[in-house]
Amino acid sequence: MKTRLFLLFFVTALFSNFGYSQKKSASSKIDINGVWEDVNPDVQNAVAIISEQNGKVIFSHYLEWKGKKFVESGIGKRIGNTIGYTVDVTLPIKGWATAGTHTLTLSEDGNTLEGTFIDNKKRSGTIVFKRVR
What we know:
Layout: H1 2-25, E1 34-38, E2 44-53, E3 56-65, E4 68-79, E5 82-91, E6 99-106, E7 112-119, E8 124-131
Antiparallel strand pairs: 1-2, 1-8, 2-3, 3-4, 4-5, 5-6, 6-7, 7-8
């Protein structure tokens, strides 16, 4: 009798834990695919397009600074609400960097990506994107 009771308790505990872990892992993450606005006040017509599939992030960024066009693109990954990627500049502005990395964190409401950049000229700063669609 004690053995059956112990076995019943063990199986019940196992299944209740299994059920809990299934619910926890089933929580959906916020979709980051789409068009984002670069909110840096020093640039104009600044947009980013972000695509994510299975944790792989593809990033494209266009902006204009004092009438000069700038384009960069990159590939990276997403872990939770943090995305990180390395960018290469495909249309540079003279004197600007030609590569770098961005590390961004998604806000709880899913409408802001905010973080830092570091470029290949050893400069760093903040970067913020707001969801457009």
